[in-house]
Design goal:
142 residues; alpha+beta; 5-stranded mixed beta sheet; 32% helix; binds zinc ion
Length: 142
């Protein structure tokens, strides 16, 4: 009964779970992350764009993931990425405006106070969640 999902989790397995639920239910996923002095933001499964698994097909080994508890994070960075930019994208989508992050990754370097963005690869036919649920191709979010 929701149109937009905002991922506010702090671990990789939950990101995959939320991604898959969004693809299966045809919802877009606004996701931000932060670690140390860096943050990232993108909108998955939005207007034919890629989902999380399209970009990261295989979950990393748990011992290869640095979480905020071990790596640290400056509290203002998730504040900027979550409370500001993620909320902004949710409001833009909810109000019928286009998201700026549907097929790009916004990266924030708090140390140098710089933003940059990179274009993401397109939705992948080899993506496990799409491949196993072809009926979801037509339900690609708003
Ligand atoms: Zn995918």
């Amino acid at each position: 009964m929701y149109d937009i999902v905002a991922d506010c989790s702090d671990n990789v397995p939950t990101c995959y779970l939320i991604n898959d639920a969004c693809v299966l239910s045809g919802k877009c996923l606004v996701s931000a992350s932060a670690l140390r002095m860096e943050g990232q933001l993108t909108v998955y499964n939005y207007r034919g764009g890629p989902c999380y698994r399209c970009l990261y097909p295989k979950p990393p080994l748990p011992e290869k993931v640095t979480n905020c508890s071990d790596g640290g994070v400056l509290g203002v960075v998730p504040g900027i990425m979550g409370c500001c930019f993620k909320a902004l994208e949710v409001l833009k989508i909810a109000s019928g405006q286009d998201s700026s992050c549907g097929q790009q990754l916004l990266m924030f370097d708090a140390q140098d106070a710089k933003f940059r963005s990179i274009r993401l690869r397109t939705k992948q036919a080899s993506c496990a969640v799409w491949r196993e649920n072809p009926h979801c191709h037509t339900l690609s979010g708003l």
